Amino acid sequence: MLKNKIAYKKALKIAAAYGVMLSFAISAAGCGKPKVVEDYPVSAVGEGETVTVADDTPEEQALGALEFDKELYSKENGDSLRETGVFVYDPTRIPASYIDPSNYNPDKLAFARMLLQSVHDGRKEFYVPEEMKLGQLELEGFLASVSMINPLTQSVGVEKIEDNHYAIMYFPETIGYTESTQLVDDEYVAAQKQMFIDYVEETINTTVSKDDSDIEIAEKIYRKLIEDFEVIPIMDYYMEMETGEDKFGLKNESGVEDHFISTLEMYNQKKVFDMRFSNLYYFFLDQLHIECYNVGATGKYIEQDNAALNEAMQNTNSEGWVIIKADDKAYNCDIILDYYIYHDAKENDPNCEPNLKYFGMSDATREEVWHATGGIYLNAWDSVREIPKCEEDLKKKKEDGNEETD
Length: 406
Fold this sequence. Notes:
Layout: H1 7-17, H2 70-73, H3 80-84, H4 106-121, E1 125-127, H5 136-147, E2 156-162, E3 165-170, E4 172-175, E5 179-182, H6 186-207, H7 214-228, E6 230-232, H8 234-243, H9 263-268, E7 271-273, H10 277-287, E8 292-301, H11 307-313, E9 318-326, E10 329-333, H12 335-346, E11 359-361, H13 363-367, E12 370-378
Parallel strand pairs: 6-7
Antiparallel strand pairs: 1-3, 2-3, 4-5, 8-9, 8-12, 9-10, 10-11
């Protein structure tokens, strides 16, 4: 791949990271280290079978394509945290909207799980079952939708080999406008995938317990992500590409000079684009089997009593957040707003904690922060369900943005 020094080509890659270009990309745990999971079903393993997970070595041969077993991949894994007290990442977890037959029929749902498992295994190819009878355009639409199941949308790409046969590329690079290739080696990919899965499992297992209620889990994960991640405004990143500055400190650790850092690698460096933060939070909640809705709206930000927040949001004309439903009540939770307030407060008090002012809002309170001019919509991959009404605040509204909410 030739060095890409032209800003608009770099911008094209960023656009691809937001789903403008077709990419089948799912977060997956690699096989970077031995791992034993007891008393929890693994979707790619049949009853009575034994799986040995070994360290990756350069001498390993690439795994072949999985055989499509509709009965096997029709099964949904259980809630590991509630059932065993220990959370285990579920590589084939599909959000509730995909379960609705009006969105995808059972065969397509099973096929989606097989694709997710293929990426989890680090496989390099897959076959589309002939019984699926998908035309090329329908297949491309299906793959684009499957990519949205998991927020790591640019971790994986696919390329057609022949009819019904596709190659899987990890951390694909775009050459020109359409051609893609994998420049980094499989060992690096596996290590990056495992690093993220380790973070997800450790974060959940050290932050929440099976005895916590759904809303308690949602609040604790919300707080933890705010503390752990640095938000990068996407428009500022565009400007950095134009000027050649490096104020965000993203590191290319692949050893390949022309490698373009993927979303997964950003997460491992604890950095996230502002427009992706709610997606990351949604991913955690869905892994924990908490009913949630990833929503957005175009509209106008309403100034709050925090100068740093107002400055960060002043030019925003679209916003994304998560609606959580627990105990038959729904609440708006806007993680990006609480992030800006928290990091502003940290400048004066390094030991402060997120105050969660914008966690658990009613629709009325939400309207005082963000006026949706075009209505609230579900993100593209979550288009089946009806958006629940949030009729009351989870906690009494705080007049002072720096006041503790606990």
